[in-house]
Every structure is written in C-alpha cells, then in structure tokens.
Amino acid sequence: MKAKQFLFTFLLVGALGFTSCKSQSSASSAKKELTSPNLKWSEKMALTLMKRHPKAFQLDDRTVAKWDYVHGLVTGSIQELYKKTGDERYYEYVKGYADALIDENGKIATYDMNKYNIDMVVAANILFDIHDRTKENKYLVAMQTIRKQLEDQPRTPSGGFWHKQIYPNQMWLDGLYMGQPFYTHYTVKFENGKKLDDVAKQFELLEKNDKDPKTGLLYHAWDESKKMPWADKTTGKSPNFWSRALGWYAMALVDVLDNFPKEHPKQKELVGYLNDLAVALEKVQDKKTGLWYQVTDMPNREGNYLEASGSSMFAYALAKGVNKGYLPAKFKKVANHAFDGLTTKLIRVDADGGITLTQCCQVAGLGGNPYRDGSYEYYVNEKKKDNDPKATGPFIFAAIELNR
C-alpha cells in the first residue's frame, strides 16, 4: 500500500514539475519572441495583447464577451496584420472574437439594435474578410443586422446619424469612424454603392457645421437642436477640440476611402477634407516630440498632456493618406515624427518582454449622467489607462502603414 502511495506521489510531483517546466518554457519562448530585434512594432504590440488577453473579448479586461467598438478596433488592426504577415495566429484571434459573439443563426450576443448606438457598428468591419474566407452564412446575417441598424438609425433634421438613441440630434466625430467605413464597404459590396451619397453627406454635415474656420479643426460634437447645455447656442458646436475625436474623424476618412470608388463625384470631396485636416493637424503637432495634446490646441495650458490614442490615430491616418496617394508625401514625415514620439516617449518595455503604451485617455464624452460638459478641465481630468484599446489598435495600424 505504502509503495503504491509513494509511486502515486512520485508520478504526481513529476507531472506537476513537467507542467511547470512546460509553462516556464512557454513563457520563455513568448518572451524571446517579443524581444526579438527583428519584430516590428505592429507585431510586438499585437503579440503583447494576445499574450495578456488570450481571448479577444478580454481586450478591455472584461471576463464575459461583449459586442463592442473597442474590440472591433483592435481586432480590425490585428486582421490587417494578418493580411500583411499571413500568420494564422492573428486570423484565429480575430475570428475567435466573432465566434464568441455570433451564434450559428447569425444572432449577435449582447447587441441591442433598439439603442441605436452607432458605436456598435464598427465591430462588424472584421466580418467581411471572415465571411469571404469561410463562406459561413452566420457572418453575413450579422452584417445584415448591423446594416439594418443604419437603415433605421434616427437622424437629425439635416440627415445626420444620431450618435445614440439617448443623444438626440447629436453628431459626434467618433460616430463617423464607428459607422461610415462599414456603411461604405457594405453598400459597395452588396448594394452596388447606392448609399455612397449618404456616406458623404455625414462628412459634409460636420464639415459645414462643426468645423472651426480659424484653425481648420473640428469640435468634438455638434448638436443640431442646440438644446444641450454643452452646445453653443448659436452654432450647436461643443466647446473644445479633443484629439481622439479628431483622430476618429481622420481614420474615418482614410478608411472610407478604401472602398469609395475614385470615379464617384464625392470621392474628391472626401480627399479634400482629409487634406484640410492634415494641414490643420500639422500646425498643432508638438514640434519636439511629434505628439499631440489631449486638448489639441492648448499645449501650454496647465494640466494638458501628450496623449497616446489621438497621436496614434493621426500617425495612422496621415501615413495611410500618403501611402494611398491622397496626401502629399511630406505628411509621411509628420507621421513618422509622431511614431518616434510614441515609441520613445510613451512606450514602456515590461518584464515579460511585452510593451505598454502609456498616457492613454480612457474615455471622454458629452452629456450623460454624471454630466460631461466638454470643458477644458473635463478633458484633462478624465482617467488615463495604460494600453487602452483605443490607443493600441491605432498604434498597430500606424506601425503597419509606416512599416516600422
């Protein structure tokens, strides 16, 4: 009996030791890969996130899967990385997010169309490629569901999409990125482009009603009804420029143009908006670091700081704009200067070999409860979060476009 107990204990300890060694070996292998001098910044960030968040729905530190824009943003960047590298790990990670939320009938878990939240559209961008590869109908049904939301989305009197059901008559810059790249891709792929004028109209409304003629920058949001306490009573504009909102807008332009036919009469108009924004952004770029401040046009005001998500978004949009031929070549230098700032000023290398992007604004909005007034003090005092998905996704996109 004692001999059997001894043998069992011996085998158990051996097995635990083997598991421990295997775990240590795996961690060592991951660290070796992450610290490889040949690894590009895009893969370094993606592999860091995948190591720390084995399931893509965990990217914002949650334990239960949710259909959300932050996951759509980061998985979209990793999907782009898959296209560049062919590394199946990236494809499986992205597909894993879709499969965690979409059942066999195409129903999207946690998604509620009746909220008419335009943020919920962006995660569907990853489904085009997954459907093309798998031919599984559930992904098409999910895309059709999101398309139905846009069809029924409440609109301002001028025809602009409300940001959410709870924000009547308000267009936020964020919403252009959340809705328009998917809208463009879908209408070109499945509807013969019949809604392209409507896509362009969303940009036209903000260019007309939300832009500051002096700086060329756009405010965070526009309330067509002018009823919101944060809205200017004459113009409906919110009080300040927020870099991430401008970053969403810049990314919306370059991503919409991916699927906007060159021969369409509105295409040049969108390219013009991108050029105007690029000129305005270069003027407020911090010349020393290449980065942009949280409140974009107030670098010297107390409390303002160089912010990672907006800076990553601008680097991406400007680099892609040059690569696609929409912007003059000089803006590639502006983008590289920004990326230098991100990697030398805001990136921290951690003990596990992974990287952390610091100085990321965690969240900012307008209205709601507790009330957000859009003041300077509001923006600079919102919480920061290291490796926030709203920064890491654009960082990966920027690194890919700059081939860094």
Structure overview:
It is a single chain. The protein has helices at 2-34, 41-52, 69-85, 88-101, 127-134, 137-152, 173-190, 196-209, 243-257, 267-284, 308-323, 330-346, 376-381, 389-402; strands spanning 170-172, 221-223, 347-349, 355-357. Helix 7 (173-190) packs parallel to helix 9 (243-257) and helix 11 (308-323) packs antiparallel against helix 12 (330-346). The strands form 2 sheets. Strands 1-2 form a two-stranded antiparallel sheet. Strands 3-4 form a two-stranded antiparallel sheet. It has one domain: Glycosyltransferase (Alpha/alpha barrel), CATH 1.50.10. 54% of the residues lie in helices and 3% in strands. With 404 residues, the chain is an all-alpha fold. A hairpin with a 5-residue loop joins strand 3 (347-349) and strand 4 (355-357). The model has no long low-confidence stretch (mean pLDDT 95). The protein contains 14 helices and 4 strands. Pfam families: Glyco_hydro_88. This is Glycosyl hydrolase family 88. Keywords: Hydrolase.
Short description:
The chain is mainly α. The protein is built from 14 helices and four strands. It has helices spanning 2-34, 41-52, 69-85, 88-101, 127-134, 137-152, 173-190, 196-209, 243-257, 267-284, 308-323, 330-346, 376-381, 389-402, and strands spanning 170-172, 221-223, 347-349, 355-357.
